[in-house]
Amino acid sequence: MTPYYQQGGIVIYHGDCRELLPWTAADVIVTDPPYGIAWRRGVNNARNSKAHTGILGDADTTVRDEALALVAGKPAIVFGSFYAAFPAALKQVLVWRKPSDAGVVGSVTGFRRDTEPVFLIGAWPLRTVRWSSVLESHGGMSATTAETGHPHTKPLALICRLIHECPDGIIGDPFMGSGTTLIAAKRLGRRAIGVEIDERYCEIAAKRLRQGVLPLEFTA
């Protein structure tokens, strides 16, 4: 199979991660899969947001779970939702507190829906306690998603922070989206393999990777 993009130890494949399996050779998985919540978005003129028909494979957690089963036992960082089933082999749940412009759409209680679980699954090494399980990111979410064109792009500094604490080896992302995991891996000097089923995001990721690597500061 021919990679969609390959340069400097970073490889992208276009297709279904359950069928294109080179990513399963990775040592650590860092991914933001379909959550299984049937997400979609309507037009919101007040927040200048456009309609989005949804994410492929997001009807339930089947796609996520089938992909993770292919690398069962390996350490993995998996973003998710409090409103869907948690993945198997759960080691710990971290909480990502999103920036202040997140979690407004869909909230009807007065409290923003501005947190997400981040699942650590598989065989993580034993370590002395050093970090909080609450992760924070700064800046706005709207600027990040506008830059990539993907509605769920994660902040690059957040992904760098997580990969920085991952065990050694190749990073794999079976639900690559706009390529933030691969860019973070590149900035940290890690090899990475990504797979994305939607070709428009493969092109966005390849374009972002071609832009080069700039220094990035984050709090370890």
Give the gist of this structure.
This protein has 220 residues and is α/β, with parallel strands linked by helices. It has helices at residues 62-69, 141-148, 156-164, 180-187, 199-210; strands at residues 5-7, 10-14, 28-31, 76-79, 90-97, 115-121, 134-136, 171-173, 192-196.
Please give a structural write-up.
Helices cover 20% and strands 19% of the residues. It is an alpha/beta fold. It has one domain: Rossmann fold (3-Layer(aba) Sandwich), CATH 3.40.50. Strands 1-2-9-8-3-4-6-5-7 form a nine-stranded mixed beta sheet, with helices on one face. Helix 3 (156-164) packs across helix 4. The chain is globular. The mean pLDDT is 88.
Largest sheet geometry: 9 strands, mixed
Order of helices and strands: EEEHEEEEHHEHEH
Task: Give the full name of the CATH homologous superfamily.
Answer: Vaccinia Virus protein VP39
Low-pLDDT residue intervals, each spanning 5 or more residues: none
| Rg on CA atoms, Å | 16 Å
CATH topology: Rossmann fold
| Average of pLDDT | 88
Give the domain tally.
1
| Spatial strand arrangement across the major sheet | 1-2-9-8-3-4-6-5-7
Tally of extended strands? 9
Q: Which CATH class?
A: Alpha Beta
Tell me the structural class.
alpha/beta
The portion of residues assigned to helices is: 10-25%
Q: State the shape.
A: globular
